[in-house]
Amino acid sequence: MVLARLVRLIISSWDLFIVAAFLNRISVPATCDVVLYGDIAGDDDVVHTASALLPPAPARTVTFPFLASPTLTNVELVVDGPIYRIKTLSDHPMHGSLALHLIFHFSLDDWDGFFDRGVADLLDVFGAVPLTRLSFVGHLDGLSTEDWSGVLLAFPKLDTLHIFGRDSMSHLWTALKDGLKDDLDAAADVLCPHLRVVETQAPLSLDTLHAALDLLVDCLEERAARESWPQFLRLRFFSECQEDTTISIVQVYIPRLEALVEEIVYAYV
Taking a C-beta distance cutoff of 8 angstroms, is the pair 95, 89 a contact? Predict the structure, then answer.
């Protein structure tokens, strides 16, 4: 069924598969804004996550034609406390949007383990889309270097990466560095060779600040050697140590960072 005049579609249900079955029977215009909510009663019910709201992969572009559009380039993933959301971001006036939400009707002390589920949903829904911009928000502590490598491999055209998390970002920098192939030296042989803008904010203690900055500089130096380094780098430090101490530590690294990045912005919170 083609709903040719549909402008906005909002569905909320406790049964994610009923939503998917319904969507499998319709097709919305390429300009339609779609918002889907899946209600989760308890932590034992979190077996299938946001991607279960959608039809099987082969049918998704029939239901949502904009998923096959070359103008779909920007996606945000938020797994922050009880907020679990994946949505497309676009300024294109003739482009539809998709937002997937999970509503958790229970309390959980540790949400760290949920971000990898969000990443799995992201790759399931958008893994075949040539994204150029990606934003992650939330508890990223549970993401390993292998998880980050999987994301970077899935989206080789990324040019902008925004990370706002509760993690030192060490696994991200390691993935960006270790993704280099030792026997090749062309920019095309690194993970996300077109990555030009990186913005991160992360909490750091006195113990982790030096290690995090060392790893960041090593990563950038390795990528610079392959002619693939960000032009713009924004770092926001949430440090547990005194601001003066943080500033004095960071400033030691600034000359090396400025030699590797065309523009660097750093702030202390």
Answer: no
